[in-house]
Structures are given as C-alpha cells and as structure tokens.
Design brief:
6-stranded antiparallel beta sheet; about 35% helix; globular; about 290 residues; 5-stranded antiparallel beta sheet; single chain
Length: about 290
C-alpha cells in the first residue's frame, strides 16, 4: 500500500478512528469477497475526516481490499505520527486494485485516481496473515444472504438501520490493566476484518474470537447465550456491537477491559470482552 500526503490538513486520531470504524462496519455487512463502488463515509460527531473509497478504472473494488486497507491506513498514521489528509493506493500482488482516502475532499470532490510522489508502506506479515485466514474459509460454501448485497444504497442503509435498531448493548468497565489508545483502536479494527468474512446472518453457537495472527495487545472474545430459538447471536450483531464499543470508549476516554452484553429485541443473545492479553483472567474471558 502506498500513501500520498495530499494536504497537511490535520484531524484528531479519535475522529479518524471513529469514521474508519463506521466505514468498516458498513462495508463488513456486505459480502466479504464481493465488490463495491465509490463511496464516502463520515459520522455526525466527526464530519471530518471524510473516509472515501475509490475504485479502479473498471468501476469496482473488492470489499476485502478496502477493509484491509483501512486497517493498514490507521496503523500507518500512528507509525508516522501524522493525522492529516491522506490518500492510499491499494496494491494486491503489485497491481493497483483501488484507493482510499481520509480528509476533506474539496466540495465533495474525490481526487483523480492516481499516485504521485508516494512513500511506500507495506506490512506483508499482517497482510499475508489475513489472506491466509481467508483461505481457511470455504468460499464456495458462503451463501450471500445479506440483503445489503442486493438493495440499492439508500434502501440498503435504511434496511441496516432498521435491523440495527433491534440491538441494545450494555457496556461495563471491569478495571484491569489500562491499555494504550492506539492498541485498543487497532485491536477493534482487527475484529471487523475477521467478523466480515462469514455471512452476516451466520449464527455463533458457542465462542468466537478473531484470528490471532499478530501481537496486538488488545484482544476480543465473544460467547453465545446458547439460545435454541430466535433471536440468535449472529455476525451482524457482532459488527454492530463492536462499532458501538468504539463509540463508547472514545466518549468516555477510558481504555481498559470492557465487557458488553448484547440483547436483540430485549433478549440476551451473547456477551463479549475487549481486554489486554496480559491482564484478563480466565474467569473474565469465560464469563461473557
């Protein structure tokens, strides 16, 4: 992945994180191996930076490339200590496959699809690990049942908003070892990448955790309530709950072990923990 620093218009790390989170949430609800077109994302709380997705000249880009790219983009901003208007060119096996940007497109204009004066940023170990975890999934067995893959954008957003309104999440801090803000932010983005691979309506019957392929201190685990009748714990609810957890952490400016109880239509379907890999006890992890 390459990066252009187009204009040094600064924004906060919290704004970048929250808008990336909500972009990844929307993208994760679609087919992981499917494609998307040009799109922009931002939240009411943080109008900037706008997160935009650019396609290649063929008009589409694979969602998985965008998800991986947004994860690497936030890591790049932290590594370089630069939170400013940036454009990233996405490369797969040396070929350009799309682009993403963070900043303030003038009058809503997305810059022309090009790469000029780039600095190269690659994290082959992380990218390869994510790709390997994808290979472990049987692409042929995935049923594309998520309505977001067939509806128009406006109908899609309305449908997902109505569906998400059925979810309520109860958060609670459990103390434990405080974590660096950066570690929690990166750990949360890792959850989106893993949770985006299965279909949104796939049920989690027991426990689930993202593929643990790196040394990110922030970890996540989830357990089903073991229901035998609907509603069930499904990946759609996982993605929604993690996005809300990100909002909760930033709003409270407190970064340590966080528990969450997920309820759909006021019925408990599961629980989860965001925790430091060295501080959570076995009881903490198994009690969600």
């Amino acid at each position: 992945m390459t990066c252009d620093l187009i204009l040094r218009i600064p924004f906060t790390e919290e704004a970048a994180f929250i808008n990336i989170v909500h972009a990844m949430k929307e993208i994760a609800h679609g087919d992981f191996s499917g494609v998307m077109r040009d799109q922009k994302f931002r939240t009411e709380r943080y109008p900037e930076p706008v997160v935009w997705v650019q396609t290649t000249p063929v008009g589409t880009v694979k969602r998985k490339y965008v998800l991986w790219g947004l994860y690497e983009a936030l890591k790049y901003l932290y590594n370089e200590f630069i939170f400013a208007h940036s454009h990233f060119t996405l490369l797969w096996e040396g070929a350009e496959v799309g682009g993403i940007g963070l900043g303030t497109p003038q009058a809503g204009h997305v810059p022309e699809y090009r790469t000029i004066g780039t600095t190269t940023h690659q994290n082959d170990a992380t990218t390869d690990a994510v790709a390997m975890s994808e290979d472990n999934q049987s692409l042929a067995s995935r049923e594309i049942t998520n309505k977001a893959t067939t509806l128009g954008l406006e109908a899609q957003n309305a449908n997902l908003t109505d569906l998400a309104s059925r979810l309520s999440v109860v958060f609670g801090y459990r103390g434990g070892r405080p974590m660096d803000k950066e570690d929690m932010f990166i750990g949360i983005l890792r959850v989106f990448i893993s949770a985006a691979i299965p279909p949104s309506n796939q049920q989690i019957r027991f426990h689930w955790a993202p593929s643990d392929t790196d040394d990110t201190p922030c970890k996540f685990t989830m357990a089903s309530a073991g229901r035998t009748t609907p509603p069930f714990l499904q990946f759609f609810w996982v993605v929604e709950a993690v996005a809300r957890a990100a909002d909760y952490l930033v709003a409270n400016d407190r970064y340590q072990l966080l528990s969450m109880v997920l309820k759909v239509d006021d019925v408990k379907v599961g629980g989860a923990l965001l925790f430091h890999r060295q501080s959570a006890s076995r009881e903490d992890v198994t009690s969600v």
